[in-house]
Amino acid sequence: MFGFEYPSIQDLVVWPNYFGGDSFWALNKIGLISLLAMILPALMFLLSKKEMVPRGLQNVVEGSVEFVENQIIMPAIGPEGLRYLPLLLSIFLFVFFGNIFEVIPTFQMPANARMANPMFLALIVLVVFTVIGFKHNGLSYLKGIAWPHDVPIGLRPLVGFIELLSVFLIRPFGLAVRLFANMLAGHILLVTFGALTIAVFTTSVLVVLTPLTFGMLIILTAFEMFVSFLQAFVFAILTAVYIDSSLHAH
Amino acid sequence: MSVLATIGMQAVEVAQEAFTAAEERNIAGAAGAGMAYGLAAIGPGIGIGYLVGQAVQAMARQPESAGAVRTNMFLGIAFTEALALIGFVVFILLKFA
């Protein structure tokens, strides 16, 4: 109608391999961003100096550690959760760096908008909180879930079944889908307004609408930065909450 | 509701007259996808509105506990929002898969 051609979903999320063809070592944009999301935080930590008075990069690094300590671990688990700081910090930084490439020019694709990344992270979380549950409570961890004591005896099979489903199936599924769908929706939103701006700009009459669509694009870019931070925060704090429920199972 | 149903039936009739089977399936998929996301957004929309409203009220009443309230608010939003996001995934699946 206005010369508006929306790109197909294949063009938005499927990227050709840079090299390697179909072999195991092939690398595409998602793989590159995932690698960067792994390497950049590690480099950040290695390159920062360990001084008494932090300057520059050290501020960022110490700030991220303190953020995970004070905003994620302390409210969700408490002081005994501080031993899970490395895990939660890694998850937080990996998810955040994977997300923030959504708004970085030349990449402009969140690595977590493909299901493989969030699914694998969620599987890691599933293994972690299951192992912690069995380690701290023994077999009574499973019994506490499948045969809950604070429920009337007639309802226990039903509630236990629902609890089993919700803990071992819905939890990882929800974690993965939450991150994946948020990032994919944000990516599609940005693409929509980008394509709309181009379409409006190249028409004759509707060109007056360009400031509106372009302004919206800028606002949405800022919003997506916030969302990529928020989703990393939510992923990490939900991991912490699940670890806490495994620690204090009854 | 009956108006919607009438429009829907008319759309189906038009589809049966004018389109091939594949196109018909695409149209049904697109209509179902739009409907799926729209319906999935209702509940979480109400839920998040209520949740954030109550959180703001709590923060206004007790500003000193604003930090804890905010953390729990984001947690609650994350749980509530999941339903809408599953609706969005169903939308993608119906529309493109």
SSE layout and pairings?
The complex is a heterodimer of chains A (250) and B (97).
Chain A: H1 9-13, H2 29-47, H3 57-76, H4 85-100, H5 116-137, H6 140-146, H7 156-201, H8 210-247
Helix pairs in contact in A: 2-4, 3-4, 3-8, 4-8, 5-7, 5-8, 7-8
Chain B: H1 2-18, H2 21-61, H3 66-96
Helix pairs in contact in B: 2-3
Characterise the protein shown here.
The complex is a heterodimer of chains A (250) and B (97). Chain A has 250 residues and is mostly helical. Chain A has helices spanning 9-13, 29-47, 57-76, 85-100, 116-137, 140-146, 156-201, 210-247. Chain A has one domain. The radius of gyration of chain A is 22 Å and the shape is globular. The mean pLDDT of chain A is 90. Chain B has one domain (2-96): F1FO ATP Synthase, CATH 1.20.20.10. Chain B has helices at 2-18, 21-61, 66-96. In chain B, helix 2 (21-61) runs antiparallel to helix 3 (66-96). The longest helix of chain B has 41 residues, at 21-61. The mean pLDDT of chain B is 83. The chains are: A mainly alpha (250), B mainly alpha (97). Chain A binds chain B through residues 8-9, 71, 75, 174, 177-178, 180-182, 184-185, 230, 233-234, 237-238, 241, and chain B through 68, 71-72, 74-75, 78-79, 81-82, 85-86, 88-89, 92, 95-96.
Looking at the chains present, what oligomeric state does this protein adopt? Answer: heterodimer
How far apart are the first and last residues' alpha carbons of chain A, in Å? 62 Å
Biggest β-sheet strands, sense, barrel of chain B: none
Return the CATH topology of chain B: F1FO ATP Synthase
Number of strands of chain B: 0
* Low-confidence spans of chain A: none
Shape of chain B: elongated
How many domains is the backbone of chain B divided into?
1
**Radius of gyration of chain B from CA coordinates:** 20 Å
Query: Beta-strand level of the residues of chain B, as a percent range?
Result: under 5%
Which structural category do the helix and sheet elements of chain B fall into?
Answer: mainly alpha
Known CATH architecture of chain B: Up-down Bundle
N-end to C-end Cα span of chain B: 29 Å
Number of helices of chain B: 3
The succession of helices and strands of chain A, N to C, reads HHHHHHHH
User: What is the percent of helical residues of chain A?
Assistant: 55-70%
Write down the Rg of chain A: 22 Å
Mean pLDDT over all positions of chain A = 90
* Helical/strand content category of chain A: mainly alpha
Number of domains of chain A: 1
- Main sheet: strands, sense, barrel of chain A: none
